[in-house]
Design goal:
By secondary structure, the chain is an alpha/beta fold. It has two domains: about 70 residues, Helix Hairpins (Orthogonal Bundle); about 80 residues, Chitinase A, domain 3, CATH 3.10.50. Helices cover about 40% and strands about 25% of the residues. It is built from three helices and seven strands. Strand 6 and strand 7 form a beta hairpin. The longest helix is centred in the N-terminal third of the chain and has 30 residues.
Length: about 160
């Protein structure tokens, strides 16, 4: 199964993978070697901590490699149209609060609500996809039902 991701998100994953392989992995290997030099490994907290960190790094490397392998890179700058799709930046009017909010629909790993980026798998994105400017969207959230009206759809 392919997983959509923006070109920017794909690049960030590649950079994190490179950093893990060229900086983090060698540093933890060095820390393990240093901790081994302190003698008895059965009661060596430094060794245990370094081995645990190594496991976390190797797990993250495997996770990123898998994500890169199944990634379907979508260049948002080549998209257009008036319907909400992956990569769209959507301006909404929260009709309950009479306030505008803007979200970009991005890949799972790129989601960052503080930056207005929501996962394509989020309830909000699922409610928006396929809709057009002027349409109303009802979102059933844990805090209750919310109503939004789509004000603008852009691809940037």
């Amino acid at each position: 199964m392919r997983e959509p991701i923006t070109a920017e998100g794909f690049q960030k994953l590649k950079e994190e993978l490179a950093r893990l392989k060229t900086v983090e992995r060698p540093a933890v290997i060095e820390a393990i070697a240093e901790a081994r030099g302190h003698g008895d490994l059965s009661e060596n907290a430094e060794y245990d901590a370094a081995k645990e960190k190594q496991g976390m790094i190797e797990g993250r490397i495997a996770e990123i490699e898998h994500k890169l392998a199944i990634a379907e890179i979508i260049d948002v700058s080549t998209l257009s149209g008036d319907k909400v799709t992956f990569g769209a930046t959507v301006t909404l009017l929260d009709t309950d609060a009479d306030k505008e909010v803007t979200y970009q629909i991005v890949g799972v790993d790129e989601a960052d609500l503080n930056r207005g980026r929501i996962s394509v798998r989020s309830p909000m994105a699922r409610a928006l996809i396929g809709k057009s400017v002027g349409e109303e969207v009802t979102l059933v959230a844990p805090g209750g039902t919310r109503e939004f009206e789509i004000q603008d759809v852009a691809f940037q």
